[in-house]
Amino acid sequence: xxxxxxxxxxxxxxxxxxxxxxxxTWAIGGVISLGFAIPGLGFLLGPALQSRKEETWLPLGAxxxxxxxxxxxxxxxxxxxxxxxxxxxxxxxxxxxxDGREFIAMSNICTHLGCRVRWIAERQQFLSPCHNGVFDxxxxxxxxxxxxxxxxxxxxxxxxxxxxxxx
Length: 167
Fold this sequence. Notes:
Largest sheet: 4 strands, antiparallel
Number of strands: 11
Distance between the termini: 90 Å
Helix content: 10-25%
CATH topology of the largest domain: Rieske Iron-sulfur Protein
CATH class of the largest domain: Mainly Beta
Radius of gyration: 34 Å
Low-confidence stretches: none
Number of domains: 2
Strand order of the largest sheet: 2-3-4-9
CATH architecture of the largest domain: 3-layer Sandwich
Order of helices and strands: HEEEEEEEEEEE
Mean pLDDT: 83
């Protein structure tokens, strides 16, 4: 009984315990990894998987603020979401009516170099400071280098308020 080297070792039980601890370590690591990976993938892929929003009507103001036969400048703020970045920008539009019921909304951005146009009431024209582009009160090119008329917005009136279609 004095010789310990002859005692049988229970290697199956020892390896079984080691195997179980190894499995348990990998399982806990996998659960922790999934805990970080799933929200991370949602953050990265979520904006790409979102559906496009419906049309957005931006409020401009009261329709009574538009005098007959004279374009009036209105401003609206719009939030644009690109992925997870949200930008807020201001959109300006000239609104024109000849009868108080039908409205035309035009961008205040020159179609040549993107300068802001201004309404000159004495001349009944829009003037663009970049290369002297000139537009009539409907936004059509009168002279200068602009390649096309001022861009137009879809406009509607509801309950005395004007809205333009923005996106």
